[in-house]
Specification:
With about 950 residues, the protein is mainly α. The radius of gyration is 47 Å and the shape is extended.
Length: about 950
């Protein structure tokens, strides 16, 4: 809130003229105030200088004067109507704020400012939330505090800073200023007010080690049982800050030392974390338990070791702490924690080992301290552990030895010391076995090295690691357990040529040839792996070491197939130099050319055919050529390349489908257009089902293909399948491909056209549940249109095929009582017709559809067919649909006695069709068992 006094100063400053500034924004008046030059100030003011001119930080002459100038200059500026409300500096403070920090005559300046600014200005906050009282407390200005508290004391005492939510009382506690604390208590401050951290002033003086203030606050009844937001008590804070005298005071007052905070940590844990030896000793003497666990599962010893507090660890061990206790998320011992430290790890490791720590104790991952030290590349600790007898052969849960982990951590020195130790304690054969130890997947340390990708920034380190392993009998042909992959396979996958060269350099010529041709569990040799991933440098090394190009995997693929499939041209050229068979077939008859084409590698296709004379018309077991595969997958450039090379677009597969059919089926309109440009007659070319491209595209919803075909030949939209007599519209309706349907309707395709079974597109939409298609046909064809061959309307079809959703849509236009007509050309006297939708749903046992119909307006459940006079219930009973029969009877029990044209009732039909349960149902409903037919 801006006071009236402040408004006057704002109006005044807006009307003032501005003085000239120097480069730093310092005016002569500001300079005179800063230099405490009273005469110059008077001279400038008489000359009419702007008293409120500001420097680059927003400070006025008054701002400088209240900070350090004489009282006379302050009075002079205030007499000249200088504005004390202007805020400036990093913290946006006004003149009253600054005066509270003044070294001399602070109280006089504050009193002067308050006369001008008014008492309300005491509540103005700076950017950090500090009011004048806070600043006076921070600078220890007792007399200023007393002046400020003369009015608005309650509001000032409750005002809190923005950062920690400290009141003046908290700030006085932080400054250890007992006199101000007493003054604030006399002013009736809330001595138990908590800040954002949940701390009272008592917490703060305990943490600061201020015993005098602590005793005073307790004497004025400050509560000692309040916990801060972390659950810490006064004892926690004293222990954390390392104040044994405060701790002893609390203990003498009977305060419990074993109260846990929110994390389950007691005061001893806090002392151990900070390394306060004396405090830890006092706590232990007063009953703190050295085996107490936090919620995170750490004991005090774990905490001391984790934070590298050697002296505290000594105290704890001397007090009987269990050096083998496990804790933390991985159930680690103190020795594990020590092994992972970057500082003081050696001293702590030696302390623990001398104190009876189990050198080979494992955590939940099966790691020993030696594993942990190797992971951390802690060479000194590795040496200490080995000297103390740590086992080098223990494997962790992943089956890893320290040797494996030295590779993962890139620790050359660690690997070297481990190898030296193994050589010292093992026989030669045992050492050979150990250096080739497998993890649970069957990977050796050499596998770990071989996993490194090329151009790794640590390549030189890995080279040293591999050299160490190979020089010490590591074997490069050991397979993994599940995939049968050797380190050479791993190299071929990741493409690290440097490592692969080192592996082969360690082998004899005979061993190199054998290693290069070992296969994994799917029959891939190293060459197949390298060709699959496309590493030319690896392929070259393998071929130099007699890798065979005629190895086939379990699918019949050789290295050339994999290289072509993945488009690795350089690899292909290297293989062809070694006389790889360019037309080799896989087990399903795919060739390198067909695989390259199928994956869109047109440049490779051209190279294989032109340079290496590969055949492009070889067919697979399904009679598909390279052109078929490229068309199916939508690779236009490959298709165009094959056509230019002479591939036959009329070649058909085992389904009599040409390449254009596969392109149409998969909506590759650009390829279809390309084929039509080459051979326009392909548009009418049919497959074994009698369908041309338009039929196939419509069935699959390939809109762009349909558009392309119609552009070439508009008659394609009307063409009929040779086998089913269906047009593209029929097929699009079956698949509910609404965009294709709209296109064909706009082309003028007749909706009344029937297929060989007498179904229009609307009938088929009803049969297959194509609700979008039905919506598109609305208003274009009568929904009660009867098939010339079956006499059925779309409603009948939907009911027969249990398409309740479509039936509901159709019934919005046509009542469910519509009956089927006599098919065209049939003798009405000899033909059964007059079926309702309910007849067909009941006959087929469609419970959901029957319920829909029975709940619809206008349904007729007792309508008879034209010749036999059958009711829906008769058809349901004949087919044995008990639930549907019950539904129909629930509508009218009179149906039990209703008879057909030859006088048979429902019970006749049930008995005649051996429907025992229905016989029992009908008799139970009162059917006459003595009723006779005609």
């Amino acid at each position: 809130m801006v006071s009236n006094t402040e408004n006057l100063f704002v109006e005044k400053s807006e009307n003032e003229i501005q003085d000239n500034y120097d480069d730093c924004g310092i005016t002569p008046l500001i300079l005179a105030c800063r230099d405490n030059n009273e005469a110059e100030v008077d001279k400038l003011l008489k000359a009419g200088t702007n008293v409120d001119a500001i420097d680059s930080d927003g400070r006025t002459a008054l701002f400088y004067s209240v900070t350090s100038s004489s009282l006379t200059i302050v009075k002079t500026l205030l007499s000249a109507k200088a504005n004390p409300f202007i805020v400036a500096g990093l913290y946006k403070r006004n003149c009253l704020h600054q005066a509270c920090k003044r070294a001399k005559n602070a109280v006089e300046v504050v009193q002067l400012l308050l006369q001008i600014m008014g008492d309300e200005s005491k509540l103005a906050q700076d950017k950090a939330g500090f009011i004048a009282l806070h600043l006076a407390v921070n600078t220890g200005k007792h007399d200023v505090c007393r002046v400020l508290l003369s009015t608005y004391s309650k509001e000032q005492l409750y005002a809190a800073t923005s950062d920690y939510g400290d009141t003046a009382f908290h700030l006085a506690a932080r400054k250890k200023d007992l006199n101000i604390l007493k003054m604030l208590v006399e002013a009736e401050t809330n001595i138990n007010q908590v800040n954002i951290e949940g701390q009272t002033a008592l917490h703060i003086v305990a943490a600061e080690g201020d015993l005098d203030s602590l005793e005073y606050l307790i004497n004025v009844n400050a509560l000692g049982n309040i916990k801060d937001k972390d659950g810490s008590t006064l004892v926690h804070l004293a222990a954390k800050s390392g104040h044994p005298h405060i701790l002893l005071y609390f203990i003498q007052k009977g305060v419990a030392v074993r109260t846990p905070n929110c994390e389950g940590a007691e005061a001893l844990h806090e002392a151990c974390k900070q390394g306060h030896v004396v405090v830890a000793q006092k706590l232990i003497e007063c009953g703190a338990k050295v085996e107490k666990y936090t919620k995170d599962n750490y004991t005090p010893l774990h905490t001391a070791v984790r934070f590298g507090k050697y002296d505290v660890a000594q105290v704890l061990i001397g007090a009987g702490a269990n050096v083998n206790a496990l804790g933390g998320p991985k159930n680690e011992s103190s020795l594990h924690f020590a092994a992972k430290l970057t500082r003081y790890s050696e001293k702590l490791t030696e302390l623990l080992s001398r104190s009876g720590a189990n050198i080979d104790i494992i955590n939940s991952d099966g790691d020993t301290a030696l594993h942990a030290a190797v992971r951390a590349r802690n060479y000194p600790v590795i040496k200490i552990l080995l000297e103390e007898g740590a086992s080098v052969i223990i494997k962790n849960s992943a089956g890893e030895t320290p040797i494996h982990l030295s590779i993962l951590s890139m620790s050359v020195s660690g690997l070297l010391v481990l190898i030296d130790e193994m050589k010292r304690i093992m026989a030669e054969d045992d050492f050979r076995l150990y250096i080739n130890s497998k993890n649970k997947h069957g990977e050796t340390a050499l596998h770990y090295c071989a996993r490194i990708p090329p151009k790794n920034e640590s390549q030189a380190i890995y080279n040293d690691l591999i050299k160490l392993l190979l020089d010490n009998n590591a074997e490069s042909n050991i397979p993994t357990l599940e995939t049968n992959e050797t380190p050479i396979h791993y190299c071929c996958q990741n493409g690290n040529a440097d490592i692969l060269r080192m592996l082969f350099a360690s082998l004899s010529t005979k061993e190199s040839s054998k290693a290069a041709n070992l296969t994994n569990n799917v029959g891939w040799s190293a060459l197949l792996v390298a060709c699959y991933y496309g590493h030319p440098s690896i392929v070259r090394i393998l071929l130099e070491n007699e890798a065979r190009v005629d190895y086939f995997d379990e699918n019949g693929k050789a290295a050339l197939h994999l290289a072509c499939e993945n488009g690795h041209i350089l690899c292909v050229e290297m293989l062809m130099e070694k006389k790889a068979f360019v037309d080799a077939k896989t087990k399903i008859g795919e060739t390198p050319v067909s695989l390259a084409a199928a994956n869109g590698h047109s440049q490779l296709v051209e190279m294989l055919v032109k340079k290496y004379h590969a055949s492009y018309n070889i067919q697979s077991l399904t009679k598909r050529s390279a052109l078929h595969m490229a068309s199916e997958n939508g690779h236009l450039h490959s298709c165009r390349t094959l056509i230019q090379l002479g591939a036959d677009p009329m070649m058909i597969d085992m389904n009599q489908a040409a390449s254009i059919h596969l392109a149409a089926e998969n909506n590759h309109s650009d390829i279809v257009k390309m084929f039509l440009d080459v051979r326009p007659d392909l548009a009418s070319f049919i497959n074994k089902d009698g369908n041309n491209c338009a039929h196939i595209a419509a069935a699959k919803g390939s809109l762009e293909v349909i558009k392309s075909l119609i552009k070439v030949n508009n008659a394609m939209a009307y063409s009929k399948s040779k086998s089913t007599m269906r047009t593209p519209l029929h097929l699009a309706a079956i698949g509910d491909h609404i965009e294709v349907i709209q296109l064909l309707i706009n082309q003028g395709v007749s909706l009344l056209e029937e297929d060989k079974d007498g179904s229009t597109a609307l009938h088929l939409a009803a049969q297959y549940g194509s609700q979008n298609a039905i919506e598109a046909f609305k208003g274009r064809i009568p929904f009660n249109f009867a098939s010339s061959k079956t006499g059925m309307t779309p409603l009948h079809v939907a009911a027969e095929y249990n398409q309740s959703g479509c039936l509901a849509d159709l019934m919005l236009k046509i009542p469910p009582s519509v009956i089927s007509e006599c098919p065209v050309g049939k003798n009405p006297a000899k033909t059964e017709f007059g079926f309702t939708c309910l007849h067909l749903a009941a006959k087929n046992g469609h419970e959901v559809t029957v319920r829909l119909l029975l709940n619809s307006d206008g349904v007729v459940f007792d309508h008879r067919t034209s010749k036999k006079g059958l009711l829906p219930i008769h058809l349901a009973i004949i087919e044995g649909h008990g639930v549907v029969t019950s539904l129909l009877l629930s509508r009218s029990a009179e149906q039990i006695s209703a008879k057909c044209a030859i006088g048979r009732s429902a019970l006749h039909f049930a008995a005649g069709n051996n429907q025992l349960k229905l016989v029992q149902l009908l008799i139970g409903q009162g059917a006459e068992i003595d009723d006779q037919d005609k």
